[in-house]
Amino acid sequence: MRFQPNEDQATFLSVLDQMAEGDAAAWKTSPEWARFEWSETFDGMLEANGFLDCAGEETLGLTMAVAMTHRVARLPVLAECAASAVLRPLVGPELPRPIAVVDGDPRDAIRFLPVARSVVHIGEGGVRRAVLNPNAVSPVDSLFAYPMGRLAAGALEWQAANADPETVRNAWRAALAAELGGALKGGLDAVVAHVKERRQFGRPLGSFQAIQHRLAGAATRIEAAHWLALKAAQSLDPVDAATALGYVQDAATRIVNDLHQFMGAMGLTLEHPLHRWTYRARLLRSAMGGAAGNLEDLAERRWRAA
Amino acid sequence: MDFDWTEEDRAFRARVRDFLARELPSDWAALSRHGPGSKEQTEFSLEFCPKLAEAGLLVPHWPSEWGGAGRPPWEHFILGEEMWAAGEPRGAQYMNVNWIGPTLMRFGTDEQKRRYIPQMAAGKAIWCQGFSEPNAGSDLASLRTRAERDGDDYVVNGQKIWTSYAGLAEHCFLLARVGGSDKGKSGIAIFLVPMATPGIEVRSIPSLIGHGDIHETFLTDVRVPASARLGQEGEAWSIINYSLANERVGIPRYELASRVLDGMVKELSKRGRFSDPVTRLRAGSASAACEAARILVHRTVDKRSRGEALGAEASIARVAVAEADHAVTDFGLDYMPDAFSGDGDLAVQTHHERAIVTGIAAGATEIQLGMIAQRWLDLPREVH
User: Fold this and answer.
1) What does the radius of gyration of chain A's CA atoms come to, in whole angstroms?
2) Number of folded domains in chain B?
3) What residue in B sits closest to A224 (Cα-Cα)?
4) Which burial class, exposed, middle or buried, applies to B151 when counting CB atoms under 10 A from its CB (0-12, 13-18, 19+)?
5) Number of domains within chain A
6) pLDDT of B248 over the 90 cut
7) What is the largest CA-CA distance in chain A?
8) Interface contact flag, B383 A209, Cβ < 8 Å
């Protein structure tokens, strides 16, 4: 067992860090106070520099694709990473990206659809994919911090993906666990910075034990979620995958509520980026069956023989 | 990164399991209910640990000079997982293996090492830990037991409480205040004290965690030679920080919790009571809590195996371990309450009795959360 990245992985993560700390990924308010900032620049940088193909590199692998998903989700800007880095190698390396994923009811609003060029559907009957055309997507306004859109029924030519549906589902759960965990970590970091600075009653908010203990509890769950997602990415085991996603979805509710609580009124504004993370988390909580579905599924898999 | 066991790790675990299957008696489940400090388990450990030592499974991670084989920290940890999950047949001797022995190796005089370590490595030494006092629990640095220098000796007076395993221990790893200071971390020393020394009186405290586990220890004019002091006067705090860093990740409680959860689900399924979605969801949630604890503890072992000092990661792991232990116990209380009465399910009862202490012993959860806030999140200390 080795929790340290190998040399190639360490270089990969360090270059990714440099990019993530650059201007393209920095917080700025959006025109007309949109609830998200789709960063074509940052998304393009990930693609142009080959980051999204890391799963195919022997020394990097799917574990790094999931680690990258976590890192990118910590940013206040949006890039489409999870589907391109984790799913595309499994369901169609030639699919044009960005990629939207339908992992629930195809009639629901789907994240990334308005900026996507192809779509993957992970359904009961298997995995299929399609290249998008302009008639197939209608953008919709949403409270969530993603570009959201609906698919027009019958407007696409679906192709069955030549991939094991079970593997795809497990990889997608690991990716979603990392994306949700990263969003929570981004929000936590912002709130920690705020409570160190903000003073009330003559002292920083972050010196109050009531706040310290809840943030420390959140940090504990966010740490566990990060490692569980990486482990699931390596093993692609159904129990590991359901554990990673169910655990972080279950933790997300309380963490998101606490983050907003400690940010106070500033967290209600669009002038502070907290919503960029928490309103992604509020959507990802329900993905692939949500906490209840994933935890029940984990029980089913773990004790099938019992 | 690699989150899988190596072939060597798997083979080692299999060897430990084989040993346990061979050497644990058929009435072990009933015996282990008594708790690691009980007369029954202490006597058992004095037969069992020498066999472990002979098989090279007591202190494999210790250097060969002290009876070990210089094996990697991961083997020590696999050993700990298997022993704890089996009900800890090493009794109180797990403390020697995890931290008392390594602390003596690092800070002891040659005479102290020669006198104590071989007995530990042979599986024949029972120690207790004289830390907490009536007014010094979480705030350990406020302890008041005092050791006054008198020629070549010290004379110790004071009272310890919650002293694990004191009833049958032969030696105590004792903290006492020295010099003129009444408080603070700098005026404390460690003494290695034979429990048979005149002036030591022990009273067992009946408890929920097994009879014979916790005690009050009264020290009245206890005379110990200066050669029994471990390290220098005032050095105790840095020494016990080293010891506690070993102890903080010491007990892999999630391993027993996870196996007890398996047993509960098996029993519920047998009775046709595991098809309800809410029951399954709760079992899944307890399972996820165990896996969260496991991976966070494994991260600390990985860090230690690379020779790096543990920071707040150890506290993060401990918070998760407490949550896992309680999640499993609560699942049992909600869905199979009958297991807690009579001879319903001994493993469930044993786990419950041990889980109730998780979150209190070796640094309360609130202390851990404070350390995470200040050392991991870098939040300012609370001002008074």
Assistant:
1) 19
2) 3
3) B292
4) exposed
5) 1
6) no
7) 63
8) no
CB within 8 A of B190, min separation 6: which ones? B173, B174, B175, B229, B230, B231, B235, B236, B239, B240
CATH number of the domain to which B256 belongs: 1.20.140.10
Instruction: Tell me the CA end-to-end span of chain A in Å, nearest whole number.
Output: 29
Q: What is the pLDDT of residue B207?
A: 87
- Min Cα–Cα distance to chain A from B372, Å: 6
In a domain, A282, yes or no: yes
pLDDT score at B11:
97
pLDDT at position A30: 86
- Is A278 contained in some domain? yes
Indicate which of B260, B270, B287, B308 best probes the interface with A, i.e. most A CBs within 10 Å of its own CB.
B287
If residue A131 lies in a helix (H) or strand (E), which one and from where to where?
Answer: strand A126-131
Would you state the pLDDT for residue A63? 97
The angle at the Cα of B39, spanning B33 to B41, to the nearest 5 degrees, equals 50
Using a 10 angstrom Cβ sphere, with 0-12 exposed, 13-18 middle and 19 or more buried, the burial of residue B291 is buried
**The amino acid at A234:** Q
Full 3-state SS string of B110-135: HHHHHHHHHHHHCCCCCEEEECCECC
- The residue type found at A182 is G
Do B158 and B121 belong together in one domain? no
Q: Which residue of A213, A235, A240 is in closest CB contact with B369? A: A213
Same domain, B215 and B274: no
Which residues span the domain enclosing B208? 129-234
CA distance A100 to A130: 10
**CATH at B135:** 2.40.110.10
Per the domain annotation, does B240 fall within a domain? Answer: no
**Predicted ipTM > 0.90:** yes
Give dist(CA B204, CA B216) in Å, integer: 6
What are B46-86's pLDDT values in tens digits? 999 999 999 999 999 999 999 999 999 899 999 999 999 99
Whether B366 and B298 map to the same domain: the answer is: yes
* pLDDT tens string A127-164: 999 999 988 999 999 999 999 999 998 889 999 999 99
Tell me the chain A residues in contact with residue B264 when contact means C-beta distances shorter than 8 Å. Answer: none
- Does any domain span residue A127? no
Residues linked to residue A122 through DSSP beta bridges, in sequence order: A127
- The CATH number of the domain where A170 resides is what? 1.20.140.10
CB atoms within 10 A of CB B153: 16
Structural domain span for residue A242:
165-302
**Partner A contacted by B321 (CB < 8 A):** no
Nearest to A229 by CA among B288, B284, B285, B249: B288
Any domain includes B330: yes
Secondary structure element (H or E) that encloses residue B240, with its range: helix B236-248
Query: Of the candidates B90, B125, B160, which is a domain's last residue?
Result: B125
Sheet containing strand A148-151, edge to edge, reads A110-111, A148-151, A137-140
